[in-house]
Amino acid sequence: MPLSDDIIVYLQGTTNYRESESSAFFRRPLDNRNVRSIYPNGFLPLISPTIFDYNATVGVKGETNFNLNWDLSHTVGGNHIDYTLNNSLNTSLGIKSPTTFDAGGLGVRQHVTNLDLFKSVDLGLDSPIKIATGFEWRYEMFEINAGEEDSYRDGGVPVLDGPNTGQTTMAGVQGFPGFSQENATQKDRHNFATYIDLNTQFYDSISVGLAGRYEYYSDFGSTLNGKFSLGYQVVDSILLRGSVSTGFRAPSLQQSFFNSTSSLIDGGEINSVATIALGSPLANALDARLLKPETSKNFTMGFIYKPTENFSVSVDYFYTQIIDRIILSDNISIVNAPEITPALEPYGLWAARGFINAIDTETQGVDLRANYELDFKNKGHLKLSARYHYNKNRVDGPIQSRIILDAAGNNLSFSEKERERLEFGQPNESLILMAHYKSRGFDGVIKLIKAGAFSEEAQRLKSQWLADIDLSYQVHSNFNVAVGVHNLLDSQPSRNALNGQLLTSSPYGYNGGFYYFRLTADF
Fold first, then answer.
1. What DSSP element (H or E) covers 281?
2. CA atoms of 44 and 256, how far apart (whole Å)
3. Which of 58, 160, 185, 194 could crosslink 11 through cysteines, CB 3.0-4.6 Å?
4. Alpha-carbon distance 154 to 131, whole Å?
5. How far, in Å, CA of 250 to CA of 484, rounded?
6. How far is CA 282 from CA 81, 328, 348, 426, in A?
7. What pLDDT, on a 0 to 100 scale, did the predictor assign at position 296?
8. What would the pLDDT profile of 416-461 be if each residue is shown by its tens digit?
9. Start-to-end Cα distance in the chain
10. Cβ count within 10 A of residue 338
11. What pTM was computed for the model?
């Protein structure tokens, strides 16, 4: 909404409310986790979260008499998820157990204020210097809300009947034990940042960019990072480009303060496992250090080749080193690390895990893109494109977390299984071939995707091809109809050679082909 010739007020907002339901594993009639007088035929716990998400931005922008463009805005956003358990029970409450529970929830809120300034300054160089600078203030809050007491408490009632009568039962609602009062928390922080970005050209063939950003966090102090970029137009059809930069990421509030207690069955025994909040008495007893920020060093170089208006190719190499990378540790139990027993026993825990600055990593690879466009006499337009990506991800150097070793000398906080997941758990290459044709009201896209090989549980899975098709037609200025298929080849991930189950880290789903009809109406 214009206020004058030079000033505009703008705003936008979205809100989203969702209800969903998914099941936990079925509890059989003779399972110790069942109360047979309530569910004589067993039961299937239903996890029914409600999610409320919102964001809104209001701002004003304009231009001064000195050709200075400015933009001032404030954004507020939040996300809240509340868990309800239906068709379940808390076995430790016996026959008095409810079957529906409020298990608590999680919430995040954020406020961000931005002021950005833009101006071109002529200093007598070949081209004006484009200057962008600005300021940002951000506030964020994370909270865990406790559920009703019956969703997490131990009622002390043992197994009531059957061959295991009298044995200890599992505390908390089956399927999703509620967040307890001990889990409940509310943490917040704020940070301030300022930046400057300079760009100019020399001799119409060399472009130079220099940027810097200073940031101060109320919980992690200050950081200064920068970026330098360079482009060189060798000839009209070839552009060389590259950049070097540093990066910084403060641990999220969730990584520092999320905590929960759940149950795990190991060797037929029911045990309690805690995800610990750093800085808590339990974390201190385990000598779990407070999280440090992640820092990074980045380098890219590549070129663009465009011999004609219709054809272009680009190739880019990238390298990123992340220092003090944050990971979620493995479960460390009193079985494989007896020395932590004194710390866990007062809390009735068998194992614990948490977020830790465990490793340094290096990632490098290549991105290749090619595009070709062709126009037809019938006003049709065809765009052919190819995208290839290759990367290699590896842990660099020793594991930095507190050294807790098992009998074989393996580090328990970051096991070989977790190393495999990080280095090989995702495909190290992918290829996408796409044809997009438009003519009058018709719009068609055909896409072939090659998902590269990956590893899980020491098994190397071969690459697979997938295919997507989307065909649409504008039947009216207000209506568009479309039909399509995702995963036309009905590709599915391989199965685990050890137990026959589907491998869970596959980059594509196990449901096979998905067919759809879509109707879009615009008014």
1. helix 281-285
2. 33
3. 58
4. 62
5. 42
6. 26, 16, 12, 34
7. 97
8. 888 888 898 888 999 999 999 999 899 999 999 998 888 887 788 8
9. 21
10. 9
11. 0.83
